[in-house]
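Much of what follows relies on a compact textual record of a protein's fold. A record is reproduced here so that you can trace the correspondence yourselves:

. . .
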Amino acid sequence: MTLKEYFAKQPFGAITEMANKLGVSRTWLSLITSGRKPPSPLLCTLIERLTKGKVKRKVLRPDLF
């Protein structure tokens, strides 16, 4: 599952909530979600944990994992 697909199934405000937990801006997380910016390896791991494994780090950065 991609991050975009994950957020499509989440309630309003989920992007903001996750951005706060990750310590990044909502704008930065939106750029990652849209595929315009790649997440760091650390963010990939944190996103995988926060989504309880629904969004795999391999999907976020196949070049690294």
About this structure: The mean pLDDT is 97. Helices lie at 3-8, 14-22, 26-34, 41-50, 57-60.
